[in-house]
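Recall the central idea of this unit: under ordinary conditions, the amino acid sequence of a chain determines the structure it adopts. In this exercise we apply that idea directly, starting from the sequence alone.
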Amino acid sequence: KNQYEEALFKCEDDRYEIDMVIDSNQAAIRALEPLAREIATLGLSSGELTRYRYRLEKRTLNVIHLKAIARIYGDHGTEILE
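Accordingly, the structure predicted from this sequence is:
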């Protein structure tokens, strides 16, 4: 292999990894959108500004979704997931 083939291989590998990250982020968004609508409905139905503590069931989000959330929020990912 020459230097151009190596650069092309690295570029293709990076692109594949980015595509995988995008796909996992999209899956997390699809899983979270119904929850966001439900939370918004809870806030609207009360008619006043109150704070709710919303708890998810353990099986609502799978490992891929949790890792995507942790990756997006970086150092605060574990804090968000608690």
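The first helix runs from residue 3 to 46.
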